[in-house]
Design brief:
heterotetramer, A mainly alpha (100), B mainly alpha (186), C mainly alpha (525), D mainly alpha (649), C: 525 residues, two-stranded antiparallel sheet, D: mainly alpha, two-stranded antiparallel ribbon, 26 helices
Chain lengths: 100, 186, 525, 649
């Protein structure tokens, strides 16, 4: 029997991958992809929870998360393009505008 | 038994793809593994009888978002030397270890944990008798979540406008003096 | 008419916000100017509606609007007017169009943003004046800071970033303490009544234990003391004023500072009466020190704007001591002093507002504010001289100007409550004359020896348009104070006599203007 | 109706001149300003006659509400009684004459709208002061006249000295005004009203039992109000502004700083005489201050060279007499001297003004002399004025000043010192006034050739009012002829009983003031009078002998014999210097310290220090602001992990 614990552990692993990607990849595109990965792990939790509890709200949440993810990807990629135009790189080591 | 087999094979592939997404040197490869990830997840959703979500997972994620990534990767056409990685220093190692340990702890807790919650009425049988997953999700979406749904559409529109504005080519010259100075120091 | 009466406060408050949107959407700066001026004038008319339909016979809350906002936490959208905020509302809407006139000729790429921010600021100020729900009030209270932050930070002088950061962090610090106190009060009220509510009208009934009251009062009072600003929390003010553009200084001195004293009257004093009685001597002492200290500092300033800024410290010291003049052994507040404090708030807005405008007038022409650069301007700018003298006289509290009525009543009440404080504060009247006349003398009188000053032009029609109403009002407020005091009397007496057990009821809007007289009102009901 | 017009006309004149008709020629301004005042005078005269015909009972004229808050009430009510009626006539009457004169005096100015506007405004404020039925309306006038005085002293503002003098006048007056304010506060605190008529009723009504606290309060009230009077009426130690105020145009000095404004203190004390009678200690202080001021100022006047300065110190000294009169309880004598002084001091100032105009705005008497033959009319009226002020028998000063000295002497043993000071001051007065007359009009002309050529009598606009004032100065004394002199057809002591309805001694203290109504032997009165006349005669003769031909041998040798005294007097006892180095400078230094050290260094330093401390802590606890996305992300993740750890374990 596949319990919810299985799904949760899988989601945790995906989230870990995503987190490490965000933290250690220097290519902005990869950072964005890792974020997608994290979002997906959350989606998985929602869907499995929805099935466990017999409540469709979880699936609706996933729907919204996908919407937001689409927006985020769109805006994020637009920013990547803009940054690349301006600085000629998408390497985060060189993008340090926030330096105080 | 077949369900378990299905789960374990899908889960193993998902884990593998996730690792590959994060570790590939070439963004194109990463994107391809991401697509794989998304398809496999859709499969898992379908196995949990969340057909609607499985469908839009493929349509929106795999069909739209990752394609967008692909386009951008090609548009930027990065030089190989820019696909460098983080130089690992002491803090990085520490954080890496801490993160992995933390997730391991969480994972361990999840393995032996017993999740609880208030059960709702939408069991698999109830959904099937009410007209299927897509129909019931739609009902919830357009009644209880009507306002957030409309707001989501507003959000999408804003994102579209914002993307256009941000990515618009409005500056002929690539970088100002200040930017160059900043880059030189970076 | 019923609709108007029952929603006039929302209309007045949010009309400026709509105007701000319209300003942003307007195609050109020219349109934006007219839109903002039009919006400000309509807001002023709306506030006049409140003024004329305000029933000056009752201490209750009028034009009340109550809607649920966040019902889970008992947070509501409550607006109302009584004698304590009526005058300030009208002052705010009155000053805004004048300020818009004063920035009319600024032709800057960012000017549209300025106008929009300014209208947003007006919305924030009006909102915090009319809000009767703690959270609702707090939202406006903080929202007001943001436009001001940008106004100083973008259109300010050389040192603007320092000044605006100091301003925002200082005020924010106080606000956070107040927020904490608000939450404590909220929980206390729940423990006593079993109802979660942030409705101020209900919270007035909460009786906190004495020790808790002391802490809560201190937190509230500190937030307002910083805003006022009271000695020794005043150092952000001279910086903010010096760096702010003229328009920012006018609104800062004219309305923003008053929100501090208004907050004392609305929140700190009636919510925590026992603590008020305990803290009164300390606050009065700080107020008196502030009066003298501000005046002496103002006297030494070489920059005209800084001088006026320090004069605000001194003048608001009067308002503070007037707000908290405890009489009858702590059982009541002095109604005279309280009336004076409410009146002086308005009057300080008028006189100091016009002083900042006037400093702005010469700054526009000469791009300097150092007193040493001027002298003998009365010869080339006679009308300017008249305006400056009227503003000065109002500021020093010469009888016949509004300043006298306010200061006199405050001093009278304070004297009744604490003769020593009253007598010492009276010295402030003398010192006020010292620095204001110094200002006049250095700008207007003496030989006209600077070549650049000889070419100065007198006031333009636009400048007349925003200076004359202030000058006229300064005199009208001195000669016919009852026009204003009549409106606020019941509310003030309610607060003064019952502050130990303060209650205020919300009344239905009134359908017939008070001006029509008693008979008509009977019929109207 | 007529009553309101009295107030309305000057205000209208001020408004039209000041704000509307700014571009008109000086002549129009002059006519407008003067006619406003003459109209006010006519209305005042008619009102006064009506009032007398109606029996002369005090009436309160109710105006609109003014300030109302809590239990405090101060409406615009006006009081018309014998005292304010008299003041009304003095202000508008003498004011009209001075306005007429001012047209001539100011004829060289290009635009005089400002001048006449201020003058009219001044008259309006002065009328408010004397007509107000409560302390607060009086206070409007009280500060309002101070304002006009400030504006008029600084009329020629391009000279910084004038602006400074105006400011000094305003500020010193404000010190007094604070006293006045405290008086108002105390009055309201203990009597719950500030209305004169209500106060009077409360204190005088037979049933009024004042408790001990109230009696004590009255002492403080009167003292505080007297501080106000000191400021306005230029008494020690607040007299310093008046000599400086001579920087203003001479008609201003005549109207404001001699005839009307400076007498406000005397008016106020007379108005509240029932309170002052209840406070014998205050009365004693009042009398002493008055007497000391009279002598002090008179001694300074002995050695001044500036013709206006002499008159200014003379004014201070004469005001001292009036205050002395009030202090000994002889309010009608004080007011009578106020009346006569208004006439002859206005005359003297205007006469001096004529001289100054003729001398091309030179005021130093060392450059004058022998003007008698160039300006015969001015000489004649000045002669009358001088004789009046020194108390030459038969002229007004004789009657009024002697009355005060007589009351001082009969006030009891405790007042004999004050009498002595007053009598000595009278001697000085004769000396310096005769000196002024001699140096200006007699002897050889000492001015330069150019000035000499242009010396001539002034126009009729200027000497006309002088003649009227001269007649008044000579005649008004006969309103109050002492008992001992019988002049057929005149009622003796007409004036003393004129004010009887106003001046009322509360029954509680009737015993203390019994001497005011006591009978004294005629011989005593004759003796006192003889002393004054003798003193006057001797010092006048001395002055004539010293100065009949410029600075004679005696003058010079006296000056060098008492070099130290002479220097002290010339420098006005160094009072200004004293105030400057012991009050103004320390205050300035302290303010500088407060600003530079306390405000900027300490308070602001603490504020900025707290800010910097937080920045430091923030900097230490963060990976500096490297701007690296990864570093920021890592900090965030570690933070989240920490939070979760805390949450779960």
């Amino acid at each position: 029997m596949v319990s919810i614990n299985h799904y949760l552990v899988l989601a945790t692993f995906m989230f870990l991958c995503g987190t490490l990607g965000v933290l250690f990849r220097r290519n902005l595109l990869l950072v964005l992809m890792s974020i997608e990965l994290m979002l997906n792990s959350v989606n998985l939790v929602f869907v499995s929870g929805s099935r466990l509890l017999g409540n469709l709200d979880g699936q609706v949440m996933v729907f919204f998360i996908i919407t937001v993810a689409a927006c985020e990807a769109g805006v994020g990629l637009a920013m990547v393009i803009a940054l690349f135009r301006r600085y000629g790189t998408v390497d985060t080591n060189f993008l340090r505008i926030l330096r105080g | 038994m077949s369900q378990e087999l299905l789960f374990y094979s899908f889960a193993g592939l998902i884990a593998l793809c996730s690792v590959m997404v994060v570790t590939s040197r070439n963004p194109v490869i990463s994107a391809i593994f991401l697509v794989g990830d998304l398809f496999l997840l859709a499969g898992l959703y379908a196995s949990m009888e969340a057909h609607f979500i499985a469908a839009i997972q493929i349509l929106v994620y795999a069909g739209a978002i990752v394609v967008l990534f692909m386009f951008v990767i090609m548009l930027l056409n990065l030089d190989p030397d820019q696909r460098s990685q983080v130089q690992i220093a002491a803090p990085e190692v520490g954080v890496l270890a801490l993160t992995v340990i933390a997730f391991a702890v969480v994972g361990g807790m999840l393995v032996f944990g017993q999740p609880t919650g208030v059960s709702g009425e939408m069991t698999a049988e109830a959904i099937n008798s009410a007209g299927g997953n897509t129909f019931t999700v739609g009902m919830v979406l357009y009644t209880k979540y009507l306002w957030p749904f409309e707001l989501a559409s507003m959000l999408i529109m804003l994102a579209i406008i914002a993307s256009i504005v941000i990515a618009k080519k409005d500056r002929p010259k690539s970088a100002t003096e200040g930017d160059k100075r900043r880059l030189a120091h970076g | 008419m019923d609709f108007l009466n029952s929603h006039i406060l929302s209309i007045t408050t949010f009309l400026p916000l709509l105007t701000a949107l319209a300003v942003l959407l307007s195609p050109s700066l020219g349109t934006a100017r007219w839109v903002s001026l039009g919006g400000a004038l309509v807001t002023f008319l709306a506030s006049l509606h409140i003024w004329f339909y305000f029933d000056s016979q009752t201490p209750g809350l009028q034009f009340t609007e109550i809607h649920d906002w966040i019902p889970t936490f008992g947070i509501r959208y409550i607006m109302g007017v009584d004698g304590l905020n009526l005058l300030l509302i009208v002052l705010t809407t009155f000053l805004t169009p004048l300020i818009l006139l004063s920035v009319w000729n600024i032709d800057d790429k960012k000017q549209k943003a300025f106008l929009a921010l300014f209208m947003t600021l007006e919305c924030g100020m009006l909102g915090s004046l009319v809000a009767f729900d703690l959270v609702f009030f707090y939202v406006f209270w903080e929202a007001m800071l943001i436009p001001m932050y940008f106004i100083i930070g973008i259109w300010g002088g050389k040192n603007r970033v320092y000044a605006t950061t100091k301003f925002i962090i200082y005020t924010f610090f106080g606000s956070l303490l107040m927020l904490a106190a608000m939450i404590v009060l909220y929980v206390l009220h729940f423990q006593q009544s079993g109802v979660y509510t942030t409705n101020l009208l209900d919270l007035y009934g909460t009786t906190a234990p004495y020790n808790t009251q002391l802490w809560l009062f201190a937190a509230f009072a500190l937030a307002f003391a910083i805003k006022v600003p009271m000695f020794p929390f005043h150092t952000w003010l001279p910086d903010a004023h010096t760096e702010a553009p003229t328009s920012g200084s006018v609104i800062l001195a004219g309305v923003l500072l008053k929100l501090g004293t208004y907050g004392l009257l609305r929140f700190a004093i009636p919510l925590f009466p026992q603590a008020t009685a305990t803290f009164a001597p300390l606050i009065v002492a700080l107020g008196v020190i502030g009066i003298i200290y501000g005046a002496l500092n103002a006297w030494m300033q070489k920059d005209a704007k800084k001088m006026v800024a320090y004069s605000s410290v001194s003048h608001l010291g009067f308002v503070v001591i007037g707000s908290i003049a405890v009489v009858s052994g702590g059982a009541a507040l002095s109604a005279e002093a309280l009336t004076g404090a409410v009146y002086q708030q308005i009057n300080h807005g008028i006189s100091t507002g016009s002083l900042f405008f006037l400093v702005g007038v010469i700054y526009d022409r000469r791009h300097t504010r150092l007193l040493a650069d001027f002298g003998g301007l009365a010869k080339v700018m006679p009308w300017f001289a008249i305006m400056l003298i009227v503003a000065t006289l109002s500021s020093v509290g010469l009888p016949g100007t509004g300043g006298f009525v306010g200061e006199f009543l405050i001093l009278l009440g304070t004297f009744m409550s604490n003769p020593l404080a009253g007598a010492t504060a009276a010295l402030g009247v003398l010192l006020g004359a010292v620095y204001m006349l110094t200002l006049c003398r250095k700008i207007l009188f003496g030989p006209l020896d600077n070549e650049e000053n000889k070419k100065l032009k007198d006031l333009t029609p636009r400048e007349f348009a925003y200076l004359t109403p202030l000058a006229v009002l300064a005199v009208v407020m001195g000669v016919f104070p009852n026009l204003f005091l009549d409106k606020v009397k019941p509310s003030i007496e309610n607060l003064a006599n019952n502050f130990r057990n303060y209650r205020i009821v919300a009344e239905a809007p009134i359908a017939t203007p008070y001006l029509l007289g008693e008979e008509h009102k009977e019929m109207g009901r | 109706m007529l009553f309101w017009l009295i107030l309305f006309f000057p205000l209208l004149g001020a408004f039209l001149n000041g704000l509307v008709l700014r571009k008109v020629s000086p002549t129009v301004s002059h006519i407008l300003g003067t006619s406003a005042l003459i109209a006010a005078f006519v209305c005042a005269l008619l009102t006064y006659l009506q009032f007398l015909a109606g029996g002369g009972q005090a009436q309160v004229i109710t105006g609109m509400e003014w300030i109302e808050a809590g239990t405090f009430k101060a409406p615009f009510n006006f009081i018309l009684d014998r005292l304010s009626g008299l003041m009304l006539l003095i202000i508008t009457g003498i004011g009209s004459l001075i306005h007429i004169y001012a047209g001539g005096y100011m004829h060289e100015e290009k635009a005089t709208y400002r001048f006449f506007s201020y003058l009219n405004l001044f008259v309006f404020m002065m009328l408010l002061l004397v007509l107000g039925d409560n302390l607060l309306v009086m206070f409007i006038g009280w500060e309002g006249v101070g304002l006009c005085s400030y504006l008029l002293i600084g009329y020629w503002y391009e000279d910084d000295k004038n602006a400074a003098a105006g400011m000094k006048a305003f500020l010193v007056n404000r010190i007094g005004d604070i006293g006045f304010l405290l008086g108002i506060f105390l009055t309201f605190k203990y009597f719950h009203t500030v209305s004169f008529s209500e106060l009077k009723q409360m204190i005088l009504s037979a049933g009024a039992q004042l408790n001990g606290e109230q009696i004590e309060a009255i002492g403080w009230i009167t003292l505080a109000l007297f501080v106000g009077a000191c400021g306005k009426s230029a008494q020690m130690p607040l007299y310093v502004w008046l000599p400086d105020a001579m920087a203003g145009p001479t008609p201003v000095s005549a109207l404001i700083h001699a005839a009307t404004m400076v007498t406000a203190g005397i008016y106020m004390m007379t108005r509240l005489n029932f309170l002052f009678y209840l406070a014998p200690t205050t009365q004693m202080i009042v009398a002493s201050v008055g007497a000391v001021t009279a002598l002090f100022a008179a001694t300074i006047a002995l050695v001044q060279y500036d013709i206006k300065k002499v008159l200014a110190y003379s004014t201070v000294s004469q005001l001292g007499y009036m205050v002395l009169g009030c202090g000994v309880g002889a309010y009608s004598a004080g007011v009578f001297h106020l009346f006569t002084h208004a006439c002859f001091k206005a005359l003297l100032f205007l006469g001096a003004g004529s001289v100054i105009v003729a001398m091309h705005h030179k005021q130093d008497m060392r450059e004058m002399g022998g003007l008698r033959k160039y300006m015969p009319v001015t000489h004649l009226v000045m002669l009358i004025g001088v004789l009046a002020i020194i108390g030459f028998p038969g002229l007004s000063g004789f009657f009024s000043k002697d009355e005060i000295l007589w009351r001082a002497w009969t006030g009891g043993d405790q007042y004999h010192i004050q009498w002595g000071l007053g009598a000595l001051a009278a001697v000085c007065t004769s000396f310096y006034m005769v000196r002024l007359l001699m140096l200006t009009f007699y002897g050889k002309n000492r001015s330069d050739h150019h000035t000499q050529e242009h010396l001539h009598e002034t126009s009729v606009v200027m000497w006309g009012p002088l003649v009227v004032l001269a007649i008044l100065s000579a005649a008004v004394g006969y309103l109050n002829v002492p008992h001992i002199i019988h002049i057929p057809g005149l009622t003796n002591l007409l004036f003393e009983h004129y004010l009887d309805p106003v001046i009322s001694i509360p029954p509680q203290v009737a015993e203390h003031w019994h001497h005011l109504h006591a009978e004294y032997p005629q011989s005593l009165e004759w003796a006192i009078m003889a002393v004054s006349v003798a003193g006057m005669a001797i010092s006048s003769l001395l002055a004539i002998s010293m100065y009949s031909n410029g600075f004679g041998r005696i003058a010079n040798s006296l000056g060098s014999a008492f070099k130290g005294a002479h220097r002290v007097l010339t420098n006005k006892y160094y009072v200004d210097e004293f105030y400057d180095s012991y009050i103004v400078t320390p205050l300035r230094d302290m303010s500088q310290f407060l600003w530079k050290v306390v405000d900027v260094l300490i308070i602001d330093g603490i504020v900025n220090g707290v800010g910097q401390a937080f920045m430091l802590i923030g900097g230490l606890s963060s990976f500096r602001m490297s701007g690296s996305l990864h570093r920021h992300g890592m900090v965030m993740v570690v933070g989240i992990i920490c939070m979760l750890t805390v949450l779960f374990f």
